[in-house]
Each structure stands twice: as C-alpha cells, then as structure tokens.
Amino acid sequence: MISGVLVAALLTAACTDSEPDPAASGSTAPSTAAPSSAGVDYTAWQGGTSTPVADPMYPGYGNPALDVLHYGLVLDWKPDTKTLTGTATLRIRAAAAVSDLKLDFSKAYTIDEVTVNGAPAGGTVADTKLTVAGSLAKDAFATLVVKYHGTPTTVPMPSHRTDSEPLGLTVTKDGGLWTMQEPYGASTWYPANDQPSDKALYDIAVTVPEGWSAIASGTAQAPEGTTFKYTATAPVASYLTTLAVGKYQKETAAGPHGIPLTYWWRAGADDKALPYLRKSPQYLTWLEQRFGPYPFDSGGVLMVPSASGMETQQMITMGLPDYGSEAAFKTGFDADLLHEYAHQWFGDAVTPTNWNDLWLNEGWATYAQHLYTNERDKVTAKAWEDWARGVDARLRQRLGPPGKPKADSFAESNVYMCPALMLHQIHKQIGDTAFFAMATDWAQKHRNTTQDRASFIAFVNQHTGKDFTSLINTWLDSPTTPK
C-alpha cells in the first residue's frame, strides 16, 4: 500500500503484516488409503493423505503420529444460549503406531459420546488435548466420531502485533460467530490435528436459526432448510478453515474461467468494503497472469468484526481495521485483499510444513502485494527496494531474522518484508520471464502439499540452473540486511 515512494499504510492480519509499510523435504502421500479391518473403504479420502511432523515452534499442538484424511463436521449453533453442538467424524490414518488417539480440542466442551470404528470408546479432554482410547498399527485406518456441546472459548495469540486478537471461534454480543486461528485455534470448535503439516479434506454442515446464515471454508453446496453445507475437495490445513454465523448479506459473481465467487457482508458494518470485494475477479486475473491458474474451484470473501484478515482457504476472512483515514483505507484495503488472494497460491495451495517457515507464506504474498501496489502507484522497483531495505534493517534489529522466528512473536513483520526483499533479489538476477515461470511452477507443481526451506532451495536451484543456496540462507538467517 505504497503511495509515492516512501509512504506506507498498515498491513493487516493474522496473515497480513502489521508493520507500517510505503524437493524435497516437502510432504508427499506416504501410502494409498485402503479398506480397514472394520470394512470401511478409505480410498475416497486419500486426497487428504499427509506426512505430519512435530511442529518445533508450538510442540503442544498437533500429533505427528496421526494423519487426519477427512473431517466431517455437523454443527448446530443456538445464538440465544450461545451453545454449539457438534458431531465430528474423523477418518484417520496412523502415521506411526499409537496406543491412543490424541487430538487438539478445547476443554470448554462437554463430550457426549465417542466411538472408534463404531464401538464406544473412552474420551477425555485435559488442557488442549482430547485423548481417546484405542491403539492403531502404523498405516492402519480408523473412524473416530466425537459428539460434544458447549460455549466456544478462544485462546491467546502468541504475538505482540498491534492487531493481535484471541485465536479461535469468537462469540459476538448478538450471538454471532467468527474465527481466525493461525497458528492454532481450529481446535476451539472441532477436534483437530491443529498443525500445518496435516492437511485434510472437509465437509462442514452448520444449522442456524431462520434469518441467520452460516459460512464456512470450501465450496457451498445446496442448503437444506437452515442448514448450510460446504465441501473442500482440496486438502486444507486446520488453521485455514473458517466459520462464521450472523445475519449476512450475500452476493455472487464469476471470476476468471467462470470461477464462482461469493461475498458475505453485514449491512451497514461492511458497506465500504463492497467495492473491493467486487474487484475480486480483477485481483484473481492479475494473480493468474503471474502465478498460473487459481488453485481451487471456488473463492470469495467473508467480512467479520475483526481488526485483522486471514487467507482462509476458498473463503478469505476479512475485518475492517482502522487505517487512520479514508484515503489510507482505499489504498490499504485494496492491497490487503490482494495479499490475501495471493495466499491462495502461497500458503493455501502450498502450505509450510512447520511454523519456522511462515516466511514461505508471507514472503510470497507480501512480494505479490508490493508488485501490485508498485504497479498501481507507479513506484519503480529501485525506489521500492531502497525503501524496503530501510524497513528490513529495522525489523531485523527489533525482531531478528525471518528464518528464525520466536514462538512468542508469531507472524510479526520480519516474516513479511524480509523474505519479500529476498525474493526481489532472485527476481533481479533472473529477470521477469524466468522469475514468474519459477513462481508459477512452485505454486502449481507443489499444489496440495506442504513444503519447507530445504525443498524451496532445491526447487529454486533446479528451476533456475543457478545456486541460490547462500543467498536464500543469508537473507533468512542474517541479523542484518544482506548487501
């Protein structure tokens, strides 16, 4: 959101930077799903096969021994009593032999019933973990069903960002719901393997009172009465799911190639965002020209009462932060929405294996954003780099290098601008044609996987025929701005 050479506005989000601003170690499918001993054929969910790993930044979340292939969530929300009732059906592969099934889940809920492969099982919640009795051999499959009810509660966000908000399912004063949950927080509304390396397929059905709407990630299916249904046929990391309930207005549109788009907003509260939501086909066209086809079968934007924004898959979740002035809003919201759409390629289709590599999401989305705003505002690449180097130097001094983020400083500004400037160095060396071909192949050839620093370096070197190992590692690890 640069205006002129050195003027910048606020970038928002659990995915948008809050700084004032002018091969193969990635996952692959380890096995093919097959019928279990209980007779269930799991091949229908093999698209959700992942290689989970323990997250080094937040080891208290996630279970690398379990690979959730599919979440079937049937939810009912009662605004008057603020009660969420749910039935979660999880199709699970054991990535390693386990003596019990451990998942992340909020102790705010009462467990009503638990079954494993149709048989009753004991289930208890302590701290942030649901533990269910039942052993599985490596690569064995199981169907876990958890029925529960309660009032959602959030968890603190581990960050010092000025737009930090509690993570997870938030209940509004009027009985609505909304959520943003990066790096964890999905487990505030359903039992989840709440880590980025375990992507899964989803079916979500939400029943609400007459006159209310329920919006979730995925592609909308035909509703049944007041039950709203959504399906994600491309795998989704838990932090990229979304849910909102409220009295919403709805508008539909077509993106490039006829991609169905849906915009959800609250009359009065979100009206000034509408002109930008309606620019979604233009954003997607601009991004497709540089990074290849939009990676999903639907898209859209959901407005919520937040100071932030999030690249939730197929349905971006956006708030309306205070940009300080109407002029800053017009340039800032435009840039932020482009940023979130860029994440559909970088972060959603290709997801980091662990939170140390958040720069891999935010560097690409931030660089795309600045390419867009530089073009929009007629800022030269040289002028932008001169400005960005000053920002980079201050961020490294204050927050450290982007490749070594601190657990208590999640998604702070160093993982945005610093890797964006790194990508700019590669861009300068290989030129437009080679750079955008590389970016397109990264997003398209690694679609529906998780990746990390090592796989990115290997890909860049192979694709360009040059050795960028030192450049990339230096930009990610140096305490000062590289020359």
Walkthrough of the structure:
The protein is α+β, with helices and mostly antiparallel strands and 483 residues long. The chain is 26% helix and 28% strand. It has eight helices and 24 strands. It has helices at 274-277, 280-291, 326-343, 358-377, 381-399, 414-445, 453-464, 469-477, and strands at residues 9-10, 20-21, 66-78, 83-94, 98-104, 109-116, 119-120, 123-126, 129-136, 141-150, 168-171, 177-180, 200-207, 213-216, 219-224, 227-236, 243-246, 249-254, 260-265, 299-303, 309-310, 316-318, 350-352, 449-451. Strands 7-6-10-4-3-13-16-15 form an eight-stranded mixed beta sheet, with no helix packed on it. Strand 11 (168-171) and strand 12 form a beta hairpin. The longest helix has 32 residues, at 414-445. It starts with 8 loop residues before the first strand and ends in a 6-residue tail after the last helix. Residues 1-14 and 18-32 have low confidence and may be disordered.
